[in-house]
Structures are given as structure tokens and as C-alpha cells.
Amino acid sequence: MHYPVVERELDMKLVLSPERSVAVPARLVYRSVDPFAVHITFHAGTSAPVNWTFARELLVEGVFRPCGHGDVRVWPTQVDGRSVLCMALSSPDGDALLEAPAVPVSAWLERTLRVVPPGGEAERLGLDEALAELLAPTPADDAWLRDPWPSDESGDSDL
Predict the structure, then answer these.
(1) Has this prediction a pTM greater than 0.85?
(2) How far from chain centre, in Å, is Cα 60?
(3) Residue 57 contacts by C-beta under 8 Å, 6 or more apart in sequence?
(4) What is the distance in angstroms between the CA of the first residue and the CA of the last residue of the chain?
């Protein structure tokens, strides 16, 4: 089976204060083999890149309206006349507010939705087929389905 991958590199801004931000190269990755998730890798000048994984649906909704709670929150806004997508990420290592250009993120999301349409994720995973295979009766099941104790109503009593 073919498992397409949709990738996009872009620069995001790490907001340090209302007046100051720094560019952070990022890679957006969507793997159809993991159809519910999006992966973002930030190359923030640290020894190792920072990886985040969260629901694709959260990012899709965040393009249109504020959504999410807890570790990942996403919302659209305007900054200096540009449409941006804000992402607030929280982890035990710290919090970050990032701004991504909305147009390339939306275009990348659109490509992911063409690869695996909304609602088609479970089908892509083959969950129904796997579950049916798991639950299919086998010859050994017959032994488990028979009553191991004969019924007292059989009428073969020696009493």
C-alpha cells in the first residue's frame, strides 16, 4: 500500500515579547500512515530539533477560529496586515508562542485533506478490517462456546 507524505518547510516566528520575535525554521509533516496527526519540527538553534505532534483537526479548525486547550492552542489573527496562525505550545520544558504565515499553512493543510479527506482517517488506518479480523471466529472458539458442564436437565440422573 502507498502511504503519501505531505511536507512543507517554512519560517515561523517565535514571539519573545510584543515587540520582539525571532525566525524559527520549521517543517510541517503529514503522513497518511498516521492520518489523524500532524508533525511540526522546529529548528530553534538548539542541539536537537523540537518535535510536536497533535491532531490535524485542531490545526484545520485553528485556521478559522480559536481552538484547543491545554498543551496546544491555535487561532487565526492579523499581524501588520498579514494573516497569521498563532500556536501556543506548552510543555514541561516551557511555553512558546509561534506565528506561522496562514497562506502556506492553509495550502499545506489543503494538500493533506486531498490525500486523506476529513472522516477518511479511520478507513486509511484499516481499523474496521483489523477489528473484523480480530473478532472473526476460529475453530478453537467452538471449544470455548460449548458448555463445559452438562445441563442438570438432561434426564440422565442416577438418583
Answers:
(1) no
(2) 11
(3) 36, 118
(4) 66
118-141 pLDDT tens trace: 887 777 665 556 666 667 777 666
Element containing residue 92 per DSSP (H, E): none
Q: Coil, strand, or helix at residue 56?
A: helix
Q: What is the DSSP string of 98-156?
A: EEEEHHHHHHHHHHHHHHS-TT-HHHHHTHHHHHHHHHS--HHHHHHHS-SS--GGGS-
| C-alpha–C-alpha distance, residues 42 and 99, integer Å | 12
The answer to whether 10 touches 21, Cβ cutoff 8 Å, is no
Residue keyed to cell 523540537:
50
Residues making up the chain, counted from first to last: 159
Please write the tens of the pLDDT for every residue from 69-125: 889 999 999 988 999 999 999 999 889 999 999 999 999 999 999 998 888 777 766
* Alpha-carbon span 26 to 33, nearest angstrom: 21
Buried b / exposed e along 23-39 (16+ C-beta atoms within 10 A): ebebebbbbbebbebbb
